[in-house]
Amino acid sequence: MVTFHQQTRLQTAKRSFVTRRVPSDAMCTLLTGDLVPQAGDLVLAKVTEIGHHKRSERVDGRKGRLFVGDEVILAYGNRYAPDQFEAIVPQSLAPCHMVAAGGIAGLALSWHKRILFPTGIKPIGLIGDRNGEVVNLKNFAVEEAEPVINVPNVVVVGTSMNAGKTTTAAHIIHGLAKDGFKVGAMKVTGTGAGNDLWLMLDAGAEMAIDFTDAGYPTSFKVGLDELMPIVKRLANELLKNGCNAIVVEVADGLYQRETKALLENPEFKAIFKNVVFTAREAMGATTGANWLMAQGYHVPTVSGMICASPLAFREAASQMDIPLMDLEQLIAPGNAAGLLGKPDLLTTKAIA
What we know:
Layout: H1 4-12, E1 14-15, E2 29-31, E3 42-49, E4 55-57, E5 63-65, E6 71-76, E7 79-80, E8 85-88, E9 96-100, E10 104-111, E11 119-128, E12 153-158, H2 165-178, E13 183-187, H3 195-202, E14 207-210, H4 227-240, E15 245-253, H5 257-264, H6 266-271, E16 275-278, H7 282-294, E17 302-303, H8 310-317, H9 327-330
Parallel strand pairs: 1-6, 6-10, 12-15, 12-16, 13-14, 13-15, 16-17
Antiparallel strand pairs: 2-11, 3-6, 3-11, 4-5, 7-8, 8-10, 9-10, 9-11
Helix pairs in contact: 2-3, 7-8
């Protein structure tokens, strides 16, 4: 039964970014007891201790300060972040942690020595609809589809977290937009947060979406057979909205489970043939680019954090036949378009 007290409590709680697709009127009840949360389930929780995450990203993108005693609406999820937290969905509504500013509730298993302990939360209850069914992000995902992806595209991957993938993708987007493309941007794996999407939109993307729009708070530990359906849902949404070039970001590094599985997927390879590789240093740049080419990808350039160091840049350039491009080169006229593949594909370019 929906009570006035429950509705008021849910309406006044601080909602996190990953819940943005869920209408407020879909969150009606609180479910408690001996429940086992699933990835994507929404939970109302109380902040019990402020640790690494002192702010939570709201649905509008603002980073709101957290205080002990705040009630927040998060989504349960697993997290893979070597520079921050390793976390899993707990098996009960016992106290756990907020492991990502975008609004992920999980049980932290380990974290980087350079950061604080995780912010503590005490779940109050799973959030239910008017019928008492648990509200999950998958209930509000973009539609499933088998899109015909016949527009030019490029994928950005890297050696690891913080290799410069999103910044590189944003500059490719900006270069394409300046060349007249209606660019669709999609981040297909990672942890739900708005920073990367806002940057892609600021760079000139017509539309920027990620795996949370496909109903997943994070992509860590998803079934490998679920990865391509995520890609297809997102691509279909971009195509429906008139995008005629697609820039894809795949999170984390080549050794990460979901990243590796996706890049080795024959169906993914058949659609996305062009990959820009990002790295922080020469060994990672050469090893990663060689691995991608052995997989059959065309690697037109290497970019990322390595371009911030003239010494690392020269070292990598001496070991590879692949050109390196810094951010200014990526946005120079024609360069981004040249990453999209065969010249005949560029006929889909928008008319300025």
